[in-house]
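Checked the freezer inventory, then went back to the computational side. Two predictions to log before the end of the day. The first one is the construct we discussed on Monday; recording sequence and C-alpha cells without edits.
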Amino acid sequence: MATVPLISQRGNASQNVANVSAWLADAALQEISLIVFPEASLVGYGDTLALRRRELVTLAEPLDGRSIDAVANAVERTGVAAGVGFIERAPDGRLFNSYVICMPGGGRCCHRKLHMVEHPAIECGEQYTVIDTTWGVRIGILVGADNYLIENVRMTALMGATLLVAPHRTYGSDSNGDAALQRLSPGQRSGPHVAHGAVAAESASAAAWLRRSLIARASDNGMFVVFSNGSEKGNNQSGMIVDPDGRVLAEQCSSSSPMVSTEVDPSLIAGSVGQQCLTARRSDSNGPFVRSMPPRGNAFAQRSGTPSRGAIALSFAQVSRIRQT
C-alpha cells in the first residue's frame, strides 16, 4: 500500500481528481493495492471557517457525485483501491467532512468525520467505520482530529480494525509557517490567547506530536496505520506507514518523493503485543461500554454491474459514539 500527500487546489475538483487518477496509474505499475490520499483531498486544504454556507454547498458533492464517480472509474481502470476526502452533501441536504474508500468492483465505504468544528454548517458524523477485505486486514477510517483521541482508535480496534487509514490536513500555522494541530472543539478555537512564544512552541511541536501519537496507537492496538497529510501551503505535506509493533515502514518528507509505499505482512498483526493485549481484555468489563453503543445503518454504497477483475468482497460495521453528559 502507499500514501500520497497530494497537493490539492481549492475549488478545482476536476484537476484534483485528475491528479488522483494519475497517481493510481503510477501505483498500478508498482503493483500497489491501496493508496491513501489526505483529508479533503478533492476540495483543497484551506480553513473553511471564512466560507459562507452557499460556498460550501458549491464545493460539496453526494457520495455518487461526479468527482467520486471519476475516482471510482480510475480505481476500476487500474485495479488500485483509493481513499479520498471530500465535502459530502447528504440526501437530506446536510454537509459532512467525509472520506470514501473506493474499491475495485464498485464498493464504496464512506466515513463522516466525528470531530468537525471547522465550520458550523458542517455536521459531525456519529459512527465509527470498519471494512472487511480479502487482503487479510480489516480497515478502519478516522479523519483528521478523529485520530487525536485515544478512545477513537481503540474503539475502531475493538471493532476488529487491523489497518487504520488516517487521512489528515494541516490548514493552520503560526507566523513562522509551522504546522498547527486541528481543533477538537469550538472552545479551542475561541479560547483565550496565550503568549506568542507559547503559540509558536505549540505549533512547532504539532507535527512531531502527531507522528509520535500515531506510532503509539499502532503499537497500542496492534494495527497498521497509514497516514496522509495535505497542506494548503504545500510545505507541510507528510505521509507515513507504521506496522503493528510501532515500526515506521515508510515515511515521506518534503525532500522525498510524494508517494511512499511498502509491502504489508498481515501475519505481523496476530503476533504483536498490542493484539495480545486486546485479546486479554476482560469481556465482562466491556459490557456497559458495548451496550451503550447500538449499531446503526452504514454509509456503504454498492455500485451495480458485474464486478471487474480484482473485485474485493466487503462488509461493514458502524457503531455510534458514546455520548456522555
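The second is the one RB wanted added to the comparison set:
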Amino acid sequence: MQTHSITILGPLSTMDLTLPLYGYRVPAGFPSPAQDHIEERISLDHLLEIQAPHTYLVRAHGDSMIGSGIYDGDLLVVDRSADAVQGDVIIAAINGEPVVKRLGRVGETLAPLSDNPLYQPRLILEGDDLEVWGIVRCSLWIHRVHS
C-alpha cells in the first residue's frame, strides 16, 4: 500500500502581479460565445493567500488524500504561520517523515488522518514525534501533463 508523502519545493515570495479576471463564466457544458469584458484584476498572492515568507510549496505523492481532492503530483500551497486546528489539512513530520494528512481525532487523541478509506488512521503513540510544518491553504492541480 502506497503512503502519501511530499516533496518540499521551497518558499514563495510576493510578486505584486495581477491577472485579468473576466466577468464571463466559462461553461463546462455547451459552448457559448465569449465576452471580452475584464471585470477586475486579481492578485495570485491574494487569491492563494500567500503570506510571504511564511508560505511555501510542496508536491504531494500518493493517493491517501484523494477524498480532499489532493492527487499524486499536485502542488500544495502551505502556510507555516497559521496554527493547525482539527479538520485542517496539514503538512507534518511523523518521526521525521514528511506527510500530508488531515488533523482529526481518534477517540480523545488528535491524529493525522488519510482522506482515503483504504488507509487506516495513523495513531501517534508514546515515543512518536509529530511536528506540524503548516496548513495546506489550497492545492493546484496541473491539467496539462505535457510541455
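For RB: The chain has a mean pLDDT of 81. The first helix runs from residue 44 to 47. Let me know if you want it refolded.
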